Amino acid sequence: METPVTTSIETPSSHTNSTEILCFSAQTLKPFLAILSQKPEIPGQLLETFRDLDPKRRIPISAVLKLLNNAIQLTGDEDLGLRAARAIDSGDFDVLEYAASSSATLREAIEIIQRYIRLLDDSADFSLQYWNGKASLVLNSILPLNRAATDFRLAGVYRGIFRSISSDEHGISEVWFRIRRPEKDQEYTLTFPKATLRFQMPFDAVVFDAELLDAPLINSDPKLHDVLRQHMEVLLSERPRTESLTERVRKLIETELPKGKTNAVHIASILDMSRRTLTRRLEQEGTSYKTLLDDLRRRLALRYLETTRMDMGKIAYLLGFSQTTAFHRAFRRWTDYTPHKYRREVHR
């Protein structure tokens, strides 16, 4: 029996605690509409769901991921996110795009994106890392994203940087993907020209020469930039800082991990709810306790290996593993590297 395809989008107004729901701006869905409109397999009702959205509307991320999964199921197009990224038009990302592109340097543009990304995406968790003359813009997410959403985010950042820097700069040297290399990767090479693509890496990232951070941007406009930044401050102030259950659980797991208290029952008791309620509410937000625990362990492991010289036994203990061998197995599953090899070769 075929899985029914959802043809509507769940909106925050359908939730009693909508301020706690992590959302995308409906503005980010416009490029997907451009691609799906060309797909005869997509029912008109589903397309109308996209077309009728107010660009300023906030859409629960879990609902968007379900919709994208349904679209992929209907079309069989696993590269939907890459195609949508190539359909991005100038101005699709509204004031944030113009503020970033009018910055003085790439460094300033990235700082703008980090500060104001919540105007488009509540789940974004972007950071800059440096090593061996390279800088990497790491694109993490509070909620786990599917391949289409991850590809779209990576490609959007990559293409935005390339449009902003002059053609004689060194440019982006690598793009990192956590997923395994697909059997058919032509769409990746088409979407990320001039960059080396590295799959099954520790995180999703755009990697470039660190000196590029201080290169002037083509469309730098200090006066316009100041006006846009003031406007974004107003918009940001109108959006109260929300904390979803997913974020609260992540923080609690991080606190309890070194104590060896990693089970969901313990976390649920701190939140004064049952394990069943915790499971149900996390599912509503598009994740699970197991996923959050695994992802947090992965991120902390990378942080410890990159920024400390702690031995593997200490790291395993801090991550809540009873044995170092269990940590080694998990790290190999996360990154396809052993912890020693990662520290020695990947982030040397």
SSE layout and pairing:
Layout: E1 23-25, H1 30-36, H2 44-51, E2 58-60, H3 61-75, H4 80-86, H5 94-101, H6 106-116, E3 124-131, E4 134-141, H7 147-164, E5 172-176, H8 186-191, E6 196-198, E7 205-209, H9 222-237, H10 245-256, H11 264-270, H12 275-284, H13 289-307, H14 312-318, H15 324-335, H16 339-346
Parallel strand pairs: 5-6
Antiparallel strand pairs: 1-2, 3-4, 4-7, 5-7
Helix pairs in contact: 1-4, 4-7, 5-6, 5-9, 10-13, 14-15
Account of the protein in words:
It contains 16 helices and 7 strands. It folds into 2 domains: 226 residues, H-NOX domain, CATH 3.90.1520; 102 residues, Arc Repressor Mutant, subunit A (Orthogonal Bundle), CATH 1.10.10. It is of the alpha+beta class and 348 residues long. Helix content is 49%, strand content 10%. Helix 4 packs parallel to helix 7. The strands form 2 sheets. It has a 5-stranded mixed beta sheet with strand order 3-4-7-5-6, covered by helices on one side. Strands 1-2 form a two-stranded antiparallel sheet. Helix 8 links the parallel strand 5 and strand 6.
Which terms summarize this structure?
single chain; 348 residues; H-NOX domain; 7 strands; 10% strand; globular
What is the level-2 CATH architecture name of the largest domain?
Alpha-Beta Complex
Q: What is the total tally of β strands?
A: 7
Order of helices and strands: EHHEHHHHEEHEHEEHHHHHHHH
Question: Order of strands across the biggest sheet?
Answer: 3-4-7-5-6
| Highest CATH level, the class of the largest domain | Alpha Beta
- Gyration radius, to the nearest Å? 21 Å
Principal-axis shape: globular
* Class of secondary structure makeup: alpha+beta
How many strands, which pairing sense, and closed or not: the largest β-sheet? 5 strands, mixed
Helix content: 40-55%
How many helices does DSSP assign? 16
